[in-house]
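Lecture 7 notes: from sequence to structure.

We start with a single chain of 457 residues. Read the sequence below before looking at the structure.
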Amino acid sequence: MLVEKTIFLLLFLSSFLGFSFQYTNEALLDQISELPGLNWKPSFNQFSGYLNLKGTHKFIHYWLVEVENAAPETAPLVFWTNGGPGCSGLIGFMTEQGPFRPDADGNLLPNPYAWNKISNMVFLEQPVGVGFSYSEVSDDYKIGDDQAAQDNLATILSFLVKFPQFNNTPLFITSESYGGHYMPELADAIIKYNDANDFNKLNFKGFAVGNPYTDYYSGVGAQMETYWGKQLLPKPLWDTYIANNCTDPLQQMNSSTCSFLLLDFMKKIGNLNPYALDYPVCVSTQQKHMFKFLFQTENIEEYEPCEDNYASNYLNKIEVKESLNVKSNIEWEECSRTTKYNLMDKMLHMQHYYKTILNSKTHPDLRVLVYSGDDDGVCGTIGTQRWIYDLGFSVSSLWNTWYLDGQTAGYITKFNTPLSKNTRLSFITVHFAGHEVPTYKPKEALELFKMYIDNKI
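Now the structure, written as tokens:
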């Protein structure tokens, strides 16, 4: 009886909250009415809770923020997850492109470059064991790429049961880093699902992935070459690295000389932030003020290196967990120590998925965006350049400058792709952005996201 009264009350209140369509009872129970530290009234609705994957004991945490200042049904639906493998999509929410970011005091400050200005955003914590997501079966925490793709597809389907108003909405999937595995594999799973069903097809439009980990070289190999390219390593050691053929992935893994050099390189760069080599690391307030005094750099002043700590502190507050409708006994962490991911899958190459996806005759309008912050060491731009030109798609436009506010924002390369006269594969660099592009260059990130969603690259 209490549940029925609660649902009735929520349905009654919905007529006064600007809802332009009917929400399911399950969705209304997940609505966020207030958040600790949110001292201003958002112009969009939020929902947070769990999605039970059909036929399993898996519960994936989602956080939906509807599009700002528009009717949600008129805007695309975009799913976001972070990489890892095993890192939380709430990193993206709290430190990248979410509608607000926490400060040191637990206040939520508005993000002027939030991606929900363009679309409805669903932030996922996947796979199970990541963030607030969990399973009631211990074996479910053992997972790899194939199962992650199927679970992510099941998560989207479960979301659309709870929010059926988005069933016909243009659907995009987005990620970064190990999303270079998640996204092409999920895209392939969605295509196969659509091809196997005559009804209830997903209105899938494509994926975007930033600084992707696509193969082994795009991680460690590209990282070392980025360090050398930025002259963070001494030439005698680099010459030894080259002489021992350490740029070859198999040699990196099997040669003791290469392994020793890799470890030495890591030590040589000191405490630089490998995710954004020209940005400061999290330091004391006094050190931060000294850095700003010595380096009068507007771009770096806008960056908050301790934001990850603020996010973790915020999400672990009991009152925050209550507002988010998640299990209070779960300690939130950026990256899971509970999920047992098959690390051998990190050795798999993802390039063939791009060929399959862009040659799908049943999905001739799918669009793929690969973007890369050129200040990243962890998945350096040099790694993406190494594989993307070898996919077999000819270049239609090579390395054209794109601008924002009169400044060079990066470079755009477009490829000729089958089934359409318009390019459906683009590669965009973002100058002076780190691994998580929206964290370091939020304005540029919003602009490229808008270009992609609006098909105006």
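Confidence is low (pLDDT under 50) at residues 1-19, 284-301. Keep this in mind for problem set 3.
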